[in-house]
Amino acid sequence: MQKNNTNYSPWSWIPTLYFAEGLPYVVAMSVAVIMYKRLGISNTDVALYTSWLYLPWVIKPFWSPFVDTIKTKRWWIVTMQLLIGAGLAGVAFLIPTTFFFQATLAVLWLIAFSSATHDIAADGFYMLGLDTSQQSFFVGIRSTFYRLAMITGQGLLIIVAGALELYTGKIRLAWSITFFILAGLFGLFFIYHRFILPHPDADTTKTENSPNQIFREFGLTFASFFQKKGILLAIVFMLLYRLGEAMLVKMASPFLLDARNIGGLGLSTQQVGLVYGTVGVISLTLGGIVGGIAASFRGLKYWIWPMALSITLPHLAYVYLSWFLPTNFIIINIAVAVEQFGYGFGFTGYMLYLIYFADGEHKTAHYAICTGFMALGMMLPGMIAGWLQTAIGYQHFFIWIMILAIPTLTIIPFLKIDKEFGKKKTPNP
């Protein structure tokens, strides 16, 4: 019988667990885009097929009840890390093949599915492995290491791939080595967490619920979500709030990489890793921090308009970059930093709205459904981003991104939000 492991501090496993949670997500969402671009895949195909990788996060709420009842969350965590590591090694093996695009996409989809399952188990394990005071204390720590995974994936990993491109002179070999490095890292995560993760007493397999009971309870919970007041308007808002960003995120890296004679900035792989993965992610994080502080003083209702505008107006930075094509690397970094800071600030309002709308009897399950709509809102627009950019060019594509703010701004006046939601509570005198 497994005993509750109290020998290891939460500091020994929370940072590594959430770093491991963030890394495969950024590989599927961002690294794959840059890799395929460097391997000669068209913008249309890159955007269309990598957008499908969002699907596991869209449908994640449908199998989360089974992660909660079949095996322990600890088992799911270490098993998914092993599968992710094997998948990354598979991508590395397949890159040199003639059919690499179809084959690596299939493996990346399995990695995405494993990563989404890992998210469910890790977030549940966090609540089981810590008491309430520890949960509050470590919430910032887990977010920090998740962000570090973003910086590692979009920044350091791309810089390494770029350096290997220069060193080997072979783009495919460089990316193959990069994915072997990732696979080795996840092998280490698997071994480390296999021994270090605690065995909380509450982390047990729930055998008392039959599959029929699980389906029935989930069906009732799912149905109750769609019975919430204002559900149609809320879903439209969830799908449209990031409409412009959903298209921009698929074309930002290709725009930075494409040659200047076809409308891009002609940056190297290493430069993209620095500007978008390091400066950009840091600015994104700072924007989120400022947004959280601001929301705590006035609440979501006050900030929803400024935050909705801030997620779109900074896209003007890409309008400027595409029309003037600056060569000064500092100016390019500043432009991307402004856009990412605005996105981080504006995204705070979106996440607060999801929390607000999910509140109620089944708030955990309802929040998971909301995040499914959030992923769907990124997946569908992203699928056509490459085709649209190819059809109208980068300059007009980024102007179109600005126009896409109009539907969201039209909906906001009709949203019902409690004036006090999100405000920091002040003690009574």
Describe the 3D structure.
The protein is mainly α and 429 residues long. It has two domains: 8-198, MFS general substrate transporter like domains (Growth Hormone, Chain: A), CATH 1.20.1250.20; 230-412, Up-down Bundle (Growth Hormone, Chain: A), CATH 1.20.1250.20. The protein has 17 helices and no strands. α1 packs across α11 (243-257), α12 (269-298) runs antiparallel to α13 and α14 (316-324) runs parallel beside α16. The longest helix is centred in the last third of the chain and has 41 residues, at 363-403.
Question: Can you give keywords for this protein?
Answer:
globular; 2 domains; 17 helices; single chain; Growth Hormone, Chain: A; disordered N terminus; about 425 residues; mainly alpha; about 75% helix
> What's the CATH first level of the largest domain?
Mainly Alpha
Helices and strands, in N-to-C order?
HHHHHHHHHHHHHHHHH
Beta fraction: under 5%
Distance between the termini: 52 Å
Report the sheet with the most strands, covering strand number, pairing sense and barrel closure.
none
CATH topology term of the largest domain: Growth Hormone, Chain: A
CATH superfamily of the largest domain: MFS general substrate transporter like domains
Number of helices: 17
Rg is: 22 Å
Low-confidence stretches: 1-6
Counting DSSP E segments of at least 2 residues, the number of strands comes to: 0
